[in-house]
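In this supplementary section we document a worked example of the pipeline. Step one takes a protein sequence of length 70 as its only input; no multiple sequence alignment statistics are reported here. Step two produces a three-dimensional model, which step three serialises into structure tokens for compact storage. The input and output of this example are shown verbatim.
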Amino acid sequence: GEGFNSPSVRSYIQSLAETLKALNPKTQTEKRRVEIALEHIKEIKRHTRKLEEKVLMLEEKLKVLEEGKK
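The serialised model returned by step three reads:
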């Protein structure tokens, strides 16, 4: 399975990124804040992908262990 309801997590992240990109910051400070937030979203995406991979690997290991018990 996908684990952690991944599609909804991904859609939240995507929605957040789109919202930030749609903002029209007036000052340099605001522009910088939006840029930093977008960088944070990239990191969140990267970590989410790693977690999803780890969950899939663990689910496979669990399946093998459960099959071994039968």
